[in-house]
Amino acid sequence: MERSLGEGPSPSPVDQPSAPSDPPDLPPAAHTKLDPDFGVPPAGPGAGSEVLAVLTSFARRLLVLVPVYLAGAAGLSVGFVVFGLALYLGWRRVRDEKERSLLAARQLLDDEERLTAKTLYLSHRELPAWVSFPDVEKAEWLNKIVAQVWPFLGQYMEKLLAETVAPAVRGSNPHLQTFTFTRVELGEKPLRIIGVKVHPSQRKDQILLDLNVSYVGDVQIDVEIKKYFCKAGVKGMQLHGILRVILEPLMGDLPIVGAVSMFFIRRPTLDINWTGMTNLLDIPGLSSLSDTMIMDSIAAFLVLPNRLLVPLVPNLQDVAQLRSPLPRGIIRIHLLAARGLSSKDKYVKGLIEGKSDPYALVRVGTQTFCSRVINEELNPQWGETYEVMVHEVPGQEIEVEVFDKDPDKDDFLGRMKLDVGKVLQAGVLDDWYPLQGGQGQVHLRLEWLSLLPDAEKLEQVLQWNQGVSSQPEPPSAAILVVYLDRAQDLPLKKGNKEPNPMVQLSIQDVTQESKAVYSTNSPVWEEAFRFFLQDPRSQELDVQVKDDSRALTLGALTLPLARLLTTSELTLDQWFQLSGSGPNSRLYMKLVMRILCLDSSQICFPTVPAAPGAEDLDSDSPTAGSSVDALPQPCHTTPDRHFGTENVLRIHILEARDLIAKDRFLGGLVKGKSDPYVKLKLAGRSFRSRVVREDLNPRWNEVFEVIVTAIPGQELDVEVFDKDLDKDDFLGRCKVGLTTVLNSGFLDEWLTLEDVPSGRLHLRLERLSPRPTAADLEEVLQVNSLIQTQKSAELASALLSVYLERAEDLPLRKGTKPPSPYATLTVGEMSHKTKIVPHSSAPVWDESASFLIRKPHTESLELQIVPHSSAPVWDESASFLIRKPHTESLELQVRGEGTGTLGSLSLPFSELLEADQLCLDRWFVLANGQGQVLLRAQLGILVSQHSGVEAHSHSSSSLTEEAEPWGGLPHATSSAPELRQRLVHGDSPLEAPVGPLGQVKLTVWYYSEERKLVSIVHGCRALRQNGRDPPDPYVSLLLLPDKNRGTKRKTSQKKRTLNPEFSERFEWELPLDEALRRKLDVSVKSSSSFMSRERELLGKVQLDLAEIDLAQGAAQWYDLMDDKGTS
């Protein structure tokens, strides 16, 4: 006779045949009374125990009054008592709900067990043998086995926690050295299996089982940290979910099954009752947060794509493949649109019905994507694409939830679910799916991408992806799975301490991290990481082995993924030597690449633009008709629609206020200030301002420029630090979304610094859009000289975009072999190098590169091409910021590996300035060799809309009506007409004739924001030549009546010229009223000889600042005179 589940705990887990059974109709509550606080049977009868229970209850009630007494003794207001009471009541309510939920779940399971036991014999006796059951079957026999094994499993868990987990916790942190498990009991309620489903597997060497598990247990686990007198624990838990069990591989030897894999297909539901210090986790708001954190830990261990592997035989092959198998496939989800959504927005207390602001959440397992929000629309068009990895078919589902975005809580609009097995069966699904729980439909296009170990398919896939419209990320051509196994002989930390190694794996801007293995230099990770690849021919895997603090690098490895394309099965399984590490430090990894291929019956390859006659190809060509057929020579380049659409963001760091003081002296007794500086990060670039010493309200006034695209979601990361000798202190951070700046073109705000008690930062951002007109160039150069700050680099006046497509007729190597050329484009100090496409006679890169050039008049652009044939195709683009287009050029070089230069090209920007729309698009013949290249170069003038300049002409109509100044232009005194006056004045055709000693061109004005007098020396013309050779002129400036070194400034010296160009800026800090009392003495001098300190005066001019309009700051030519004329 089986023991009733309603009875109290038996001394033995084995059924007692002699124990009388209870009537089945009585509920469990009729047999035993549960304590309301603990949910367990009370102590045995007796007067002593009853008295003790009454005293304990009275003491608990009395303890409630202790906080009230303490609050009154401390003189606290009644509000503190009310707040504490409200917090306690909320905790008590959550606690009672959890206990009621546990009791109800136990009651349900008890009733189910009793009903099953009552009707089991009847079912076996009355049902005929031919009656079939559904595929989800009851497994009461399995539950009996689990109940029998449960006490012994509890003994195993107690040993595991005490002997393995507790030492690991104590070793992970010095504060946990007294951590111990004081109580480990799994309780009397075992895990139950509600149903079992066996799936017919496509593979004969595996068995798939789905177990619907439900655990409503009275588990009790208590821990203690004796050092801090801290006790915590768990008392009662609910866990419900579907556990998949895979038995593989099946073998011909005992035990028949090689290993057992277990994982949850979807995140299970969890409810926990806490005890001790962890009672605080039942406070409203913390309860769901704590359960979520626990679920995240379970998901990291037992939810797809993670799984638990238990090998049943020693030396099992491909353990890593079993622990983290390759995905079954990839589903490309095109979230296109929705229609007929319900309206959730209401106005005037519901009297006026609005629309909705819908967005969609797309989930497959743990992979979640969120679409953008479409404002005020019931039929939104998203047009977004996501790619998800599918690990189990059947089992996983595609879930799409649509919400209405609101400031407080988003409204639910509907949900749809679809089994991924239907996508696998159909290949491509394109349909409208109804939303459950709401109204409307959602339009999805679902594509199943198979994983192929065939590198020859890559070219075809890349060609197909060029015609795929994908946002926000480009479509992937392959996936990479990295099995991180172990490392050996990593270097030790300082003091010969064992490191705590972890690994960071990065491909472009995607980084994943492994767990940390503590106190060893030969760690074993056994983890898998998965990456999507857009073009594996040019991407690299960067591996960094670090200590868990991330401050110490233990070794590094960079692996070009093109190497995998030449291996068998696209797989590398070996040891890799680490660089920057010990001599014997190495890392064992297995890398598997798979090409993503859509079913060929679903593919309709896009047509490739070609010149007339391109279709008349050789019919005997083995690749004729494929997507990579060779095309005849085109006349012009064919860049994509994004070429030349970049903008330039000008970032002006002005000042900060109320920064926190970080400097301390005399061991912290004396409080100092801070030495702040700013770090900027945007579009993969980083910038850093100068350090302002000992100032909590620093003024930087620095300008930075970066090329940006219209990709949504970009942010400017700003961080402020205090410069120190060892580690810089953090002073705050803030983020600026670029959407507003790119749309409006200008932003000027004080930003509050986050994560610090105080501090604000003043930033000014302006978007500069390139214009294909040369008429504005002179004005832009003059405006840049005015707004140029002394601390910043020279501002850009133009943006150069270069698209390099292909080369032909390059010289052969050793007369017969085609070279391996590469190309470099160079402008000044910045360059762009094309990538190598192996094993291809027509490589396509489809890359874009951006460069910030400081002095383009001294730089060049070089192109180095490394083809695998004599007719390479690059299809690359690059962008450069240009400072002085008149004096700069684009340099292109074609070189071969080991063969030197194959050809070169120099393109002066003066040709671009004379071209139509500032663009050249044609074949260019290479110099110093044979061959030609097809490229497109276009120039865009950067006109500041907030400096009063507009790109039309030099007339007044060319200037914008906006009077908002930028950077150095004073807010209170500057306006568009004033700026127009000084720009036109400098180049006026009605200029007076040049004097006998020549002229000097100056701009003098007062910058009221910085309280500085600014003078720009542009240049001189028609200087007098006294000797046989031209002079070596320079300009000296002196602010009279002072003649000391404090007010003296001078330009650089130019060699042997009568018309020197300086374009140098000088500043004096002084109030405006004092500046008006000064005179500016400007002298043009020349060095007499190398050995002499004497200087020859070529001419001078003295300007009375009171007679100059310092608010306008006009650029003007001044006649030079001798000493007598200026006295």
UniProtKB/TrEMBL annotation:
Binds calcium (via the C2 domains) and translocates to sites of contact between the endoplasmic reticulum and the cell membrane in response to increased cytosolic calcium levels. Helps tether the endoplasmic reticulum to the cell membrane and promotes the formation of appositions between the endoplasmic reticulum and the cell membrane. Acts as an inhibitor of ADGRD1 G-protein-coupled receptor activity in absence of cytosolic calcium. Binds glycerophospholipids in a barrel-like domain and may play a role in cellular lipid transport. Belongs to the extended synaptotagmin family. GO terms for biological process: endoplasmic reticulum-plasma membrane tethering; lipid transport. This is Extended synaptotagmin-1. It is a peripheral membrane protein; Multi-pass membrane protein. Residues 10-27 have a biased composition (Pro residues). Residues 312-433, 460-580, 627-751, 777-924, 996-1118 form the C2 domain. It is found in: Cell membrane; Endoplasmic reticulum membrane. It comes from Fukomys damarensis (Damaraland mole rat).
